[in-house]
Task: inverse folding
């Protein structure tokens, strides 16, 4: 939602700290990867896209730090704030080629932050059987169940949660134009269930993800 013109009191921006949930997705990807290479790409270089990518890469870096590992991230450089982009959100052929190129470089987990182009990556993963992928914004297993066999998890943007909170605030007389920020703490963002991959993710990794999420929510882990 747009925050509206300056001074407008009946508009409220709904924002999401997707770098937090993407951090968890990066950590999960690093733990799951068999090749030691994971990847991400975006539709266009907007902050609403790069926040996901940067959080993802930092989650992998955190895994490397605590596990003394060396999992490589393709598609995003946190230091340079630059990465791989389709250039739009409609070119499925280019998204497919990017996905194939990542696989050629041994990536076995791919995180597309490109709206509907996630389907191109998912279809490639099903065809090649060389990778799995992470859905973005919504729960991919529910939104696109035909790809459930390759969806490791989904990074969720809690639009429903945020709208519900705004309605509650309005009803209780607490509404304000101060922007809403969806975080791990208020469940405005997070990871979806693992569904068909649940048995393939160790309980140790699940426990670590829970602890990391709580630390981010509490502010003791800064990302």
Result:
């Amino acid at each position: 939602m747009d925050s509206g013109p300056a001074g407008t009191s009946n508009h409220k921006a709904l924002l999401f700290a997707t770098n937090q949930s993407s951090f968890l997705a990066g950590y999960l990807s690093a733990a799951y990867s068999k090749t030691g290479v994971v990847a991400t790409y975006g539709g266009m270089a907007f902050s609403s896209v790069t926040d996901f990518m940067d959080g993802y890469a930092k989650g992998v870096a955190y895994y490397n730090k605590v596990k003394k590992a060396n999992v490589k991230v393709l598609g995003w450089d946190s230091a340079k704030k630059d990465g791989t982009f389709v250039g739009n959100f409609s070119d499925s052929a280019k998204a497919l080629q990017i996905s194939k190129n990542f696989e050629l470089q041994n990536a076995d987990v791919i995180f597309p932050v490109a709206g509907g182009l996630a389907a191109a990556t998912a279809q490639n993963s099903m065809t090649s059987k060389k990778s799995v992928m992470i859905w973005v914004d919504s729960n991919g297993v529910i939104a696109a169940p035909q790809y459930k066999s390759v969806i490791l998890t989904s990074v969720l943007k809690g639009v429903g949660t945020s709208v519900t909170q705004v309605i509650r605030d309005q009803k209780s007389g607490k509404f304000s134009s101060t922007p809403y920020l969806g975080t791990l703490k208020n469940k405005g963002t997070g990871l979806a269930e693992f569904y068909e991959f649940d048995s393939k993710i160790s309980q140790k990794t699940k426990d670590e993800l829970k602890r990391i999420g709580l630390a981010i929510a509490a502010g003791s882990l800064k990302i």
Summary: The helical segments are 18-32, 47-67, 92-104, 118-128, 140-143, 159-171, 203-218. The chain has seven helices and ten strands.
